[in-house]
Write a sequence for this structure.
């Protein structure tokens, strides 16, 4: 939803319609208090840009197309231009249609026969979702209302079986799905949804909405920070795998986990959460932790990978969104209590980094001993994909996999739980809870930002100084992940009295 123009007119654009489907409060704020909406963060912005790139690429499927008033958000101007260009009977990109207070800009409109049109909506994902059909139905309603004869409605999305070989083969990169029937089944519902959205927008006051699953689905709502900051620490939405239960408790007036009565139906792990909050003492199952630690055979290699993935495969042999490892950190402990040795790799240049990544990793990883990763399924998956692309590593990877131990295990099973984990077993929650030290001093604090920053300084136009600055942040971030794992193991030993 862009342009004050649309807000002033209270015209419901497609993005406003999607916001209304999620939450009446969100769409009301878009129209009445847009200044209070936070700007998209770096990760969201990168997703938008990735989507735009795919949208532009998909236009190559339609020869001789015309883009309708690029960069222009003025509804009346776009609509007039669209009406003029429709006469040419050529593919139109971003054509705009105004109908009964809704304004739909259509990714691609393609002429069929002498007077009909096919509509195409491009999505940067590899599967269809119900919300995509609702968006298409919103467009179809506006088109039909504006007098356009619709032939078929299509969704265009990424073909997850496409493997790049040479220049991008655009017709094979995308899949087209005929959704005409599903769209027509949505016709009545879309009518109702747009009416509901309009009546929300017309309200003088913001509707009261109770927080719920809509705040995190299909992604994090831009207003989540504001709506949720009224909740106290250790509130019921932090229950382990218990979001819906948490919302029910909130509605019944129970805000804090420690207030949940004994007869409240909690799972065993949620009950551990409540107990640790009430007592302030971590929950420890010594025998399970001992058994876990006994598996660790020196030299112990703590390893962490960073990867990027793009909708348009960047190198030959890649599928859409296939992971490409560009960095690893490895801390090796020759024996318990020894000073760890550190080794790291961060790809340079714009070529496919996988071969060098595997070479360096093979050199760095000890030939015996345990290999520890946090949520090891990620590292194992990356290694498997690399071995498929580079078969010379198949045997090595097969043997390596047997030595992997997942440090997530004692936390996911609640053999150890500290109330400061706040219902999460992720390393970003466990490390500060168990050691008191976290990622707050780092410029890069999560894998998604690491990936975006690597792509930006590797393939984008940046100064050498900026590239160097970001690369040093990447090294610090990945290095803390593996050093942090050693500290977590020490924390576990301490918790069972072994240190
Ligand atoms: S955070 Fe939740 S309640 Fe608040 S506007 Fe978003 S979806 Fe609605």
């Amino acid at each position: 939803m862009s342009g004050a123009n649309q807000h002033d007119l209270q015209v419901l654009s497609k993005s406003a319609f999607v916001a209304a489907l999620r939450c009446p409060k969100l769409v009301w704020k878009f129209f009445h208090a847009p200044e209070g909406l936070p700007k998209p963060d770096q990760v969201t912005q990168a997703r938008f840009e990735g989507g735009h790139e795919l949208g532009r690429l998909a236009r190559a499927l339609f020869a001789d197309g015309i883009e309708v008033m690029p960069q222009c958000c003025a509804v009346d101007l776009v609509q007039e231009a669209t009406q003029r260009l429709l006469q040419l009977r050529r593919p139109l990109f971003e054509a705009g249609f105004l109908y009964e207070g809704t304004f739909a800009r259509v990714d691609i409109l393609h002429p069929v026969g002498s007077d009909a049109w096919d509509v195409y909506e491009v999505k940067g994902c590899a599967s269809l979702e119900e919300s995509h059909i609702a968006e298409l139905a919103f467009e179809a309603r506006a088109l039909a209302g504006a007098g356009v004869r619709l032939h078929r409605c299509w969704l265009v999305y990424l073909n997850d079986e496409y493997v790049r070989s040479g220049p991008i083969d655009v017709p094979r990169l995308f899949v087209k799905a005929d959704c005409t029937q599903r769209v027509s089944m949505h016709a009545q519902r879309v009518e109702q949804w747009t009416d509901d959205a309009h009546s929300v927008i017309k309200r003088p006051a913001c509707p009261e909405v109770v927080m719920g699953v809509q705040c995190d689905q299909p992604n994090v709502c831009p207003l989540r920070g504001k709506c949720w900051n009224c909740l106290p620490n250790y509130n019921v939405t932090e229950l382990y795998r218990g979001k819906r239960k948490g919302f029910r408790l909130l509605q019944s007036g129970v805000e804090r986990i420690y207030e949940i009565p004994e007869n409240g139906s909690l799972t065993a792990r949620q009950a551990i959460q409540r107990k640790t909050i009430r007592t302030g003492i971590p929950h420890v199952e010594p025998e399970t932790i001992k058994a876990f630690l006994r598996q660790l055979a020196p030299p112990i290699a703590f390893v962490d990978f960073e990867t990027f993935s793009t909708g348009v495969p960047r190198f030959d042999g890649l599928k859409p969104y296939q992971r490409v490892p560009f960095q690893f950190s490895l801390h090796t402990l020759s024996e318990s209590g020894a000073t760890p040795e550190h080794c790291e790799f961060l790809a340079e240049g714009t070529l496919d980094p996988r071969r060098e990544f595997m070479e360096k990793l093979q050199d760095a990883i000890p030939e015996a001993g345990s290999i520890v990763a946090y949520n090891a399924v990620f590292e194992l998956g990356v290694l498997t994909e690399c071995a498929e692309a580079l078969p010379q590593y198949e045997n090595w990877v097969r043997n390596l996999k047997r030595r992997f131990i997942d440090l997530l295990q004692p936390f996911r099973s609640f053999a150890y739980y500290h109330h400061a984990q706040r219902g999460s077993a992720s390393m970003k929650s466990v490390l500060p809870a168990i050691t008191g030290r976290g990622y707050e001093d780092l410029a890069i604090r999560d894998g998604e930002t690491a990936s975006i920053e690597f792509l930006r300084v590797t393939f984008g136009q940046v100064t050498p100084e900026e590239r160097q600055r970001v690369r040093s942040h990447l090294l610090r971030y990945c290095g803390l992940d593996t050093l942090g794992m050693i500290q977590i193991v020490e924390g576990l030993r301490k918790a069972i009295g072994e240190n």
Summary: The first strand starts at residue 12 and ends at 13.
